[in-house]
Amino acid sequence: MDLPPIKLIQTPQAWTECLAELRQQPQLALDTESNSLFAYREQVCLIQVSIPGRDFLVDPLSLTHLDGLGDLLADPAVEKVFHAAEYDLLLLKQDFAYTFANLFDTMLAARILGWKKLGLAPILKQEFDVDVDKRFQRANWGRRPLTPEMIRYARLDTHFLLPLRQRLAEQLADTQRVAEARQSFERIAQVVPSPRHFDPEEFWHLLNGHHRVTPMQAAVLRELYVYREREAQRRNFPPFKVMSDRTLVELAEAAPQFVDECQGIHGLTRGVMARYGRQLLRVVQNGMRGEPPTPRPCQQKPAPSVLARYEALHTWRKQQAVERGVESDIILSREALWDLAHQNPKSVADLVSLKSLNDWQRDEHGAALLLALAQVRKTG
User: Fold this and answer.
1) Residues 124 and 209 in one domain
2) 26, 54, 129, 146: most buried by Cβ count inside 10 Å?
3) pTM of model > 0.85
4) Does the residue 299 lie in any domain?
């Protein structure tokens, strides 16, 4: 490939020069890389920005500030082009409190158009005959210095996004999907990061409906869950790299008192036992002596009338998706189906109060949704 030189931005002066170029552009292609597989709390480790003829790799780990970038991201006069924007937006909002206006998400556009290939690597191969080395999707982007191979991989995440955006925009216009796409992009721009806090009572989710535990086992599992989190924070590891959820559940079920009783428990290799074995036995014993935690309340099952409306809407959505050749959530989100089922709107005015529907969806599908709900009321 005949690509322009890459500009790695790691000094204040380089960032000042980069920002001056970016401010002249009506469109920016962006992506981020994080260290989510290698750190207790992931962070943005690299920001890729491409403009025609230029690829910048901005290194926030080497810079003391990125003054001016937030203004560009919030500027409605500058279009920001991402592929699968949601995770990037969440990280950028979490780390820098940025806000976003005027987005174009190439993956979401491809989904709206019914493209079968949605990952960036297969799309680049299909549209530009470019091969991407997928090994670096799981690389440690917090490591410095970046290798030449990592740098080449990172620039490909944004280098072709602007021409890809143009092809998708033309297809959206040809199929009269521009308004639908625009409102979908606006919704993505409003995503909000979850607060960073650890709740010991969240251990119940480890069971995932597939296990039933005694009160004593629940107490042990809670202690193991807290211990894993503490170790992950101390070692700056993701919790799953300390021990898997399955390992914690099997430990709680077995409640071993001696090292040899740990044999056969998933994930308890010799290395894990050498590092954690004695502590794990103490944690298990502490759990067995502790007070059983209060069971989480059972989720109340929706009323039969709500379920009937949901099933009718679910069937309608599936039919619409098949006819159009897209995935079902492109028609309406699952959240919207449940809102409709619970609220049971009877008029267009009622639909306006549902925040899970955007204006395009109300205009496009409102009459059909009201008819589907009316038929359920009639038969019920």
Assistant:
1) no
2) 146
3) yes
4) no
